[in-house]
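Predict the 3D structure for this chain.
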Amino acid sequence: MLAELCTRQVAFADDLVRNIPGVRVSQALFDDLARDPEDESVAAAAEALGRTPAPAPVITRPFDYATVIAYSFDASNWQATRFGDGRSFAVWYGSLELETTVYETVFHAHRFIVDSFPGLDRDVVGERRVFDVRCEALLVDLRGRESTHPDLVSRTSYSFTQALGRYLQEQGQNGLLVKSARCRGTNAAIFNGQRLSNVRDKLFLTYRINPARDRAIVEREVGVPWLTIAPSTLA
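Done. Predicted structure below.
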């Protein structure tokens, strides 16, 4: 069944949009723990020693995480994604449209806040950094297949899509294109990081999420609403 679903491929050569946590203004990580600037420098150097070296972390970080998880402990309960089980292989996600990345990440950010602070009636503010990343790869094209395989866009279960992701990764496929489950846009799930390159800053976003009021305000310019989303409509 999975093989029959994956018969259509497309030679993709375009940018994908990547939306991750990131601050608009760089901050000193240890200024609230050390009074002496030299102590801050020592702490920053010690922290850097624990990082996995990465020339292009926007591309490689999901693959670095998968390596650490595979050889440390089972973190599948919080690391699993739509097309990855969180244990054995990495998946890098991007979208064709900026707005699609917003709907996807607002859903996950809202879920995290509700799990941590249920019933909270105030804005929780988070900043995001958005990139354009070049992708040149032969991708499995699943767009439109959700009409006959609705589990591709299930909002409650990833069991089918995780099995599909494992199948494609074991077949040596570069990745796939699929309709978003949160909006009308298109997502890309990439299994081969070597098909990604040329990372460029696109813009910053600010999310203001109020769980009790079921409201997420997204700003491109600080203080100026750009999108207002009811997170409950994404679940």
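The longest helix spans residues 98-116.
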